[in-house]
Design brief:
By secondary structure, the protein is α+β, with helices and mostly antiparallel strands. It is built from six helices and four strands.
Length: 171
Amino acid sequence: MNETIKTILARRSCRAFTDRAVSEADIRQILDCALSSASGMGWQTWQFTAVMNREKIQLLAKAVGNALGREEYDMYNPDVLIITSNDKDSKYREVDNACAIQNIYIASEALGLGCVWINQLLDCCDDPQVREILDSFGVPQNHGVYGCAAIGYKAQEPTQKEIKGKACIVK
């Protein structure tokens, strides 16, 4: 079986990470994969912001938790958080970022890293406390956050889940 297909089929969300640091070289490769994603009309109105500092990630997690009324929220305490943002006026902003996050997922798996989608910022990226932190990270003011990828070394291999969706072939 093709190695890319094996990686896609093996990929599962990881919600427990070790303390081991992810290399900047690996994150740069993952960002290159995100930047190579499909985008509607080729507009590429996105930005990918990699936060490689656990303290800063936890500062953002605390602000998100406060905004959502979830005091213990920690984004699974990853080593790296990639924030996928996009121009709020872009017609394809959400689907463009979904394509990019899928590339981030596959690249992370290919590099032996765990990854999980963090979607809470979609609802609170404009909360004043959250926005202040996003501004400090360089996320543009006119951008919404349409997903984040929490990345780190897997503390354990995620279990295989039952596939519930259906696939059909029509001839």
